[in-house]
Amino acid sequence: MKLSSRAESHLFKALDNFAIELPSWGFADTGTRFGKFFQPAAASTVEEKFHDAGLVHKLTGACPTVAVHVLWDFTPGSDPNVTRRIAKKHGVRIGSINPNVFQDQQYKLGSFCSPDAKARADALEHTLDCIDIGKAVGSDSLSMWLADGTNYPGQDSIYRRKRELEKAFKKIVEVMKKKWPRATMFIEYKPFEPAFYHTDIADWGMAAAFCMSCAGTSGKAKVLVDTGHHLPGCNIEHIVAFLLSENLLGGFHFNDRKYADDDLTLGSIDPYAVFRIFDQIVQYAFERGMPEGKLPGVAYMVDQSHNLKPKLEAMVQTVDQAQRLFAKANLVDRKALAKAQGTGDIVGAETALRNAYETDVTPLLARWRRSHDLPADPLAALRKSGVIDKLGKERAKARKERGETQSASYA
Ligand code: AFD
Ligand code: MN
Ligand code: MN
User: Fold this and answer.
1) What is the DSSP string of 154-170?
2) Mind listing the pLDDT tens digit for each residue in 65-121?
3) Contact status, residue 279 vs residue 296, Cβ threshold 8 Å
4) Are 135 and 179 contacting, i.e. CB atoms less than 8 angstroms apart?
5) Which residue from 145, 200, 264 has its CB within 8 A of the most atoms of ligand 1, so it is best to mutate?
6) Strand 65-69 to strand 93-98: parallel, antiparallel, or no bridges (unpaired)?
7) Where in the chain are the domains?
8) Greatest Cα-to-Cα distance within the chain, rounded to the nearest angstrom
9) What is the rounded radius of gyration, in angstroms, for the C-alpha atoms of the chain?
10) What torsion do the CA atoms of 21, 27, 30, 36 make, to the nearest 10 degrees?
């Protein structure tokens, strides 16, 4: 598809506005419940995580913010601006604040939903502390993921758990409105894991209901769609369109999956599915007559853990894929699509989508990147630089000097 210069400038404007947040935890050694395969260049300090995030941003120009995990990226009781300054030093800013109410032993039966009043109180206290951190470091979102759920029928009252969670979300939003008015709370859902019988926020409808019960239509609470958090065959782009039309779509945790929450690199399994998600967002803007290049404010974030691929390569691959598929979604001829839809021309409508999806955007992206003094192929640039080997040697030495072996924790 040869683009007119007008279409190309529209696309460049869209790419200028496209940012995708990196997860600090995506640079550290992670694993599965069956163990970990350590990587010498894996980040094991906050400094190293932000160094790596800053490098991905330098290579792609699309990652100005980094999501942080409060227990892994801040020292309890210390000035949170220490982390903010580390981020700044590496050319990035802190993005969403992720409380951690799933690791502590007391959360065995849940956090906000636990039958143990102290666990519920501690989860709330930790989250209210996260509000203070978010406000202090200039973040604009609090990203709530709970592992809460049960493993057996009859284990606990689903009704009681739901009531407790509603109470907690209401309190969190009330404090956010007072102390951190600019911020939005994202409520993330997940059908299973680590809970294997029921998860208290199991799907988009429950997350949306919690958003409405704690914040109404104020926009203070929105749904976070993690692309790996759906049962096989789920039509995620339909969920996205429905939430967007209800002003309840907060954003995404992007990853890919073959079976479950596999945290694989975006587009590695089903790139057309990711394209269809971006397509619904661009379609929403088109149908609402939003100005060219303008899209609804949605937080695009990566949430992946790269156990086998070199972490920096996997992250650059993911950002490159996100930019490609986003660009393709912006190439859909929306007028031709509308005409085909209006006349029931199914093949015509589908062809409008497929033409865009099948466009090779490599030359376009290369031109956009060169116009921003970025490498035309960020992954090739990373692999050619030899920086991963260099970091591996430096970090192995630094760990040795610290008397550390590569640790099983995320921190
Ligand atoms: C795990 C959870 C969830 C959460 C992420 C970061 O499944 O996706 O957002 O950890 O805490 O992947
Ligand atoms: Mn997630
Ligand atoms: Mn997940």
Assistant:
1) TSS-HHHHHHHHHHHHH
2) 999 999 999 998 899 999 999 999 999 999 999 999 999 999 999 999 999 999 999
3) no
4) yes
5) 145
6) parallel
7) 7-402
8) 70
9) 21
10) 150
Within 126-207, strands assigned E span 141-144, 149-150, 184-188, 198-199
Cα torsion 325, 327, 333, 334 to 10°: value is 80
pLDDT in tens, 160-187: 999 999 999 999 999 999 999 999 999 9
Q: Is the peptide bond before 232 cis (omega within 30 degrees of 0)?
A: no
Work out the end-to-end distance of the chain between its first and last CA atoms, rounded to an integer number of angstroms. 47
Q: Which two tokens stand for residue 98?
A: 């992720």
Select from 2.102.10.10, 3.40.350.10, 3.20.20.150, 3.10.450.50 the CATH code of 7-402.
3.20.20.150
How far is the centre of ligand 3, averaged over its atoms, from the C-alpha of 303 (Å)? 7
> CA 165, CA 214: separation in Å to the nearest integer?
10
Check if the beta carbon of residue 148 is closer than 8 Å to that of residue 112. Answer: yes
Tokens of 190: 């997940």
Pocket perturbation via mutation, ligand 1, pick of 25, 196, 201, 226 by most ligand atoms within 8 A of CB: 226
